[in-house]
Amino acid sequence: METLEYSSQVRERFEKPDNAGRLLGRSVTGGAGDEALGTRVEFDFRLSGDRVEKGVFRAYGCPHAIAAASWVAESAEGRPLWDTTWLDPLSLASVLEVPDYKLGVLLVVQDALEDAARQVERMED
Amino acid sequence: MISAGDIIYLDYAATTPVDDRVAEVMCECMTRDGVYANPASRSHQLGRDAQGRVEMARREVARLLGASHTEVIWTSGATESDNLALKGVAHAFRDRGRHIVTCRTEHKAVLDTARQLEREGFEVTYLTPADAGRVTAEQVREALRDETLLVSVMHVNNETGVVSDVAAIGRVCRERGVLFHVDAAQSAGKLPLDVNRMHVDLMSVSGHKIYGPKGIGALFVRSGAASRLEPIIHGGGHERGMRSGTLPTHQIAGMGEAFRIATREANAEGERIGMLRDRLWEGLVGLGGVLLNGHPEARVPGILNVSFEGVEGESLLFALRELAVSSGSACTSATREASYVLRALGRSDQLAQSSIRFSIGRYTTAEEIDRALAVVSEQVHRLRDLAPKNMLSGRRQAS
User: Fold this and answer.
1) Residue B103: active-site member
2) Is residue A112 part of a domain?
3) What angle do CA B200, B202, B203 make, to 5 degrees?
């Protein structure tokens, strides 16, 4: 086993994510990934108009996956859910100090957010 | 931040701390007031004193193996012993045959050596364990050919602790006139060994797995049948020409002392460690979704390998950093390669990656086991609660 090294933000979000869980009541859910492949991320977003009022996550994966899901759920708050262009996996990798070989994990997190955005589009259709 | 002193060491299968009694003996063989001379320098008393220490240690190792001291060769460790056994036999007796039989769950020291021999033109059969991690004598019998030169099967698997019936396999090899090598790095000092009763021709052992120093090991080479191994290290003709190089007296004396202690104390120690292992297992089972990897009965007392359903391997290992344990996954690497041993036992990649090997040893206490259980329980529950669905019941997690 190689050394397990994580940034302080990854450690904090992994140890004590304060936005993990499930939202009760009306919310939009998006998910991506597969536990059998090592990473599964889901989001619940409560909307106020088209903007996210509250975001929570659930994650099965490495500490980077858990920390990234926590960061995205929190950062989505106040933004319109249909617009996911603000999430750039490379920028997120830089913020959380995620190594290159873990970029695939961040793509799963991005897919889960975009899945939630598509749920909004379907609701509007 | 967890300081090193707060970490509970449960990785005795990886290596052990040197026993204080061993360290004392080693210190006697290093400095100017001790036995520091070259044991090959038989022209003076100091050299002969060192030689005496080396030969005393050789007898201790031989005693634990049930061998003659003339059949023990010093090496740098079990990896070199495995290399010398496989390459030494293959290169010395290639005119007899070019087929080797081993097992997919062997240590890399055997598997990578076998791969090298394949590149040199030898043919290797890799058996898949049929009996919860154990290779059976019947499997070996079926794999043997007229041109089979060597069978190499480990006694105790380093990841699962599963014990193979090497005596039965040895009997098959002896009947067919095939040389038999056993990697006993994980069993020496833990289980009774007898190279004659087990029909073993070559046996690898290590110092650091049984509270001796790192960097020293030995290879039992049976007189007659296999005593003309082709060396892999040349220069000086030490160890009857099979392993050249100045003998490290302090390490050899340390290994001898470690083997002497094991000969006297292994039985009682095994009983105590087995009780601690059972205490740990009973606590882990209570968490639910905990699977034992390997044979339920045929296993060494000190190793417990389990998979945790519903918990990702890398997160689990990081969450358990208060414990020094081994993981079944190289999960921080780019490849995320799951343990080849657990995969060979039929575990999925996911379960292999969420496996933890707890290995208990001489200095483990009941309090440490209880603390380890509390840490594992807290973290496994926490990570399962974070997951999208409760994988134990297959239902989505309650809100």
Assistant:
1) no
2) yes
3) 90
End-to-end CA separation in angstroms for chain B: 32
Radius of gyration (C-alpha) of chain A in whole angstroms: 14
Neighbour tally for B297: CB within 10 Å: 7
Give CA angle at B159 (B295, B304), nearest 5°. Answer: 60
What domain range includes position A68?
8-124
Domains and CATH numbers, chain B: 4-14+266-396 (3.90.1150.10), 20-262 (3.40.640.10)
Write down the ipTM of this complex: 0.93
Please measure the distance between the N-terminal and C-terminal CA atoms of chain A and give it in whole angstroms.
49
Tokens 């959380």 sit on residue? A96
Please give the model's pTM, rounded to 2 decimal places. Answer: 0.92
B 304-323 residues with CB below 8 A of A? 310, 312, 314-315, 317-319, 321
Instruction: Give the integer Cα–Cα distance in Å for B286 and B281.
Output: 9
Length of chain A: 125
Q: What is the mean pLDDT of residues B203-224?
A: 97
Contact B314 A66 (CB under 8 A): no
DSSP reduced 3-state for B108: helix
Residue among B321, B348, B349 minimizing CB distance to A4: B321
Indicate the number of domains in chain A. 1
Runs of H (alpha helix) within chain B: 20-27, 45-65, 78-92, 108-119, 137-143, 166-176, 249-285, 313-319, 340-344, 349-353, 366-386
pLDDT 10s digits, B336-349: 578 889 988 888 88
Phi, psi of B355 (to 5 degrees): -95, 150
Of A24, A60, A101, which has the smallest distance from its Cβ to B399's Cβ?
Answer: A24
- CATH code for the domain of A52: 3.90.1010.10
- Domain assignment present for A118: yes
